[in-house]
Amino acid sequence: MGIQFAKTLKRLRTEKGLSQRELAEKMYVTRSTIARWENDSRLPDVAMITRLSQCLDEDVNTLLNAASVSDEVPQVIVLDDTKITLTGELSVLEEVLPNANIIGFTRPSEAVEYTRSHPISLAFLDIELGKSNGLDICNELLEINPRLNVIFVTAYSDYSLDAWNTGACGFILKPVTSQRVKSQLKNLRFPINCGGVV
What is the homologous superfamily of the domain 3-66 according to CATH? Predict the structure, then answer.
């Protein structure tokens, strides 16, 4: 797959004195994502490689030259403005969607920009996002990619009727569990490769 990339990433991370967990926290991914990149079972996409280069304070070309990026896996984003909640959601989603490239965002603007430049298959969106509103973000993302599956994740059931008016295909009440995610994945308008877990 990308053995050269795996070796390069591990070397750069070690040189910076970072553990896999520390790098994962800087990247807003799980430790197992970093482990998969380093054991050559998965490759990050170009945006993640760019993010890696920033977190490692390394020239992006070093990582790009070491990788041959694959777009065969589903691209999934998670947007939640609470870092601890986002971390928990990422862990659950990695368990349920082992074949997916999953990236988390705490800022709506970054999630929107990422969606503009990547073929996102699935988005998990919090509804209350500080000054932003997940319902509006959903509409913006669907304008960018009408084939995007959106699942809302919120602690407030009162939003359920408003959520359905956006074109979303799912709604999960927090806390996110693997069972809740699996039940919503069955309702996707545009099915994705879930890795045989659902």
Answer: lambda repressor-like DNA-binding domains (1.10.260.40)
